[in-house]
Amino acid sequence: MDENDIRELLEQVRGGRLTTEQALERLKHLPFEDLGFAKIDHHRTLRQGYAEVIFGRGKTPTQVAAIVQAMLRLRDSRHNILVTRADAKMFAAVRSVVGRRAHAYRSAKLATSLAFHPLSGVIAIERNKEIAGAGTIAVVCAGTSDIPVAEEALLTAKLMGNRVENFYDVGVAGIHRLLGHRARLAATRVIICVAGMEGALPSVVGGLVGVPVIAVPTSVGYGVSFGGVAALLGMLNSCASNVCVVNIDNGFGAGCVASVINRL
Questions:
Q1: End-to-end CA distance of the chain
Q2: Number of folded domains in the chain?
Q3: 64 and 89 in contact (C-beta within 8 Å)?
Q4: For position 28, what pLDDT does the model report?
Q5: Does residue 46 sit within a domain?
């Protein structure tokens, strides 16, 4: 639940459309709900402006579906639900849960869409298309092999209420591809830059624009790249002072930080 949800609930009580007992029933699982194997942080949207995100890897399809079901159970909550590092089996389990909740969505007048993005492993349950970000977040990636991580960042930023734009396969081996988008990149508010190999692209992008650049090293590369460590170290040593760095392959982290910056 976010501030708008809480405010609406209080207004319903004040206006007599909801009893105190009914309001308490809706709030009883806050601030968190204990499922035994997971404690769902229902108050995160209220505290941080975005809902808890489910990291799928290491969880069973049943566990992921149960967490989603608990998040959907809050009738007054309108936040989007994001599952990262998911697979087709998890999506099937989640789709079954969402199907059973279809009537609840209709009664709450929430336009809900469910999609699985196999390239990035993201399950997206979109219930709120409101734009909360002040500007556009650009997602730039060096090569086609970096797109899965870039897509995780892009989908995260989108579901957190931002306008997003992508510029894919514009690495330094053909830098003219990047320079062709210079004006559009300069007009964005935050840039997420995803690259493997030697990780040079964020430094180049950072030198072209006056906005924050969030660098994401990927594990793409040959043996001596050490699974993304070479790109990580290159980005950490960037001479462009507007570049900051998240962990290897952490598209979600980059999308989340970009969303927070874009709200300021």
A1: 20
A2: 2
A3: no
A4: 61
A5: yes
Provide the residue range defining the domain that includes 252. 136-263
Orientation angle between helical segments 251-263 and 147-159, nearest 10 degrees: 40
pLDDT single digits (tens) 72-129: 876 556 788 999 999 999 999 999 988 755 444 444 444 578 999 999 999 999 888 8
Residue 6 near residue 46, CB atoms below 8 Å: yes
Taking a C-beta distance cutoff of 8 angstroms, is the pair 112, 140 a contact?
A: no
Query: Do 117 and 171 have their domain in common?
Result: no
Q: How far apart are CA 174 and CA 177, in angstroms?
A: 6
pTM here is 0.82
Q: Cα 64 vs. chain centroid, distance in angstroms?
A: 17
pLDDT at 202 over 50: yes
Angle at 147 between CA 141 and CA 151, to 5 degrees: 100
Q: Which residue in the block uniquely carries the two structure tokens 């290159």?
A: 234
Q: How many CB atoms lie within 10 A of CB 42?
A: 22
Helix (H) or strand (E) holding 125: strand 122-126
Burial 2-15 (b: 16+ CB within 10 A, else e): beebbeebeebeee
Which of these ranges, 65-79, 113-127, 199-213, 237-251, has the smallest mean pLDDT? 65-79
Assigned domain for 158 exists? yes
Task: Based on the fold, state whether residues 113 and 24 are members of the same structural domain.
Answer: yes
Q: How far apart are CA 184 and CA 94, in angstroms?
A: 37
Which pLDDT score is estimated for 43? 67
DSSP code per residue over 130-141: ----SSEEEEEE
Please check whether residues 56 and 154 belong to one and the same domain.
no
| Helices and strands (DSSP H and E) totals, the chain | 12, 11
